[in-house]
Amino acid sequence: MLVAELGQYWDRYAGSLQDGQLTSKVSSDELELCVGHLEYVLKANENINLTRITDPHEAAILHIYDSLVLLPYVDDAPKGKLLDIGTGAGFPGLPLAITSHRPSVLMDSVGKKVKVVEACASQLGVERVKTVHERVESYALSHRGEFSVVVARAVAHLSTLVEYASPLLKKDGLLIVSKGVPAADEVSDGSYAAQICGFDTPTRYDLSLPGKRGARAIFVFKKSHKPSMKLPRAVGMAKKHPISK
Ligand SMILES: C[S@@+](CC[C@H](N)C(=O)[O-])C[C@H]1O[C@@H](n2cnc3c(N)ncnc32)[C@H](O)[C@@H]1O
């Protein structure tokens, strides 16, 4: 039931993408796995606080569909590994690992969330997923230039995310961020931080979730040059003192 519903929403979304190069496919087997992930999370949520959205139809849109809308941009990144910063219960990282087929690292600084995602991926048999319990700033010290694509949803301001992702991405790699509609200041600080941290000016794509469930802005930053500051800064600095104009 949820698979059929999601399939319809996905087909409509994929058909609405203007750019002929963004043509991602999602199979019903992959959607089954995504629904399996959601069911696992909703069950685990009875014991651990993972999500406030408990209605399965609502959650299918606000977690699975909301993750999958990033897939066309993920597919546009160079071949190689994906990192989800602040994955929480595995969104958007696990649906994107399932559908993009990229080796994927799902990271969070909260251990109990990481344990749920790890157990879920293992139960679903999604082998290309590795989970990491660490803060992204310390992880970046030993994983420089390792990723082709970094994603994040509901983790931090754009300028903080740009700073987190820069040392982890290889040249031409993409940072893809999903936001509810952000304030103008956040967008201009994000573009300013992008320049300093080695990215081109981001491209923005706006969309509405099905059933008037809100708007999203997807920002795609391409790593194009060397940052003009030493990264990563000490743990906590990117959040406490974000780069701003
Ligand atoms: C609001 S939750 C969003 C979770 C998920 N991305 C989603 O959209 O459902 C933000 C998550 O980011 C994690 N987080 C925040 N700062 C982090 C950091 N510096 N390194 C790793 N994880 C971080 C938090 O522990 C939390 O689980």
UniProtKB/TrEMBL annotation:
Positions in coiled-coil regions: none
Keyword Cytoplasm in record: yes
Keyword terms of this UniProt record: Cytoplasm, Methyltransferase, rRNA processing, S-adenosyl-L-methionine, Transferase
Gene3D superfamilies: Vaccinia Virus protein VP39 (3.40.50.150)
EC number of the protein: 2.1.1.-
InterPro entries noted in UniProt: rRNA_ssu_MeTfrase_G, SAM-dependent_MTases_sf
Localisation: Cytoplasm
UniProt-listed CDD domains: AdoMet_MTases
Protein residues bound to S-adenosyl-L-methionine: 86, 91, 136-137, 153
Pfam families attached to this UniProt entry: GidB
Domain of life where this protein originates: Bacteria
Family: Belongs to the methyltransferase superfamily. RNA methyltransferase RsmG family.
Protein name as it appears in the record: Ribosomal RNA small subunit methyltransferase G
Lineage of origin: Bacteria, Bacillati, Actinomycetota, Coriobacteriia, Coriobacteriales
Gene it is expressed from: rsmG
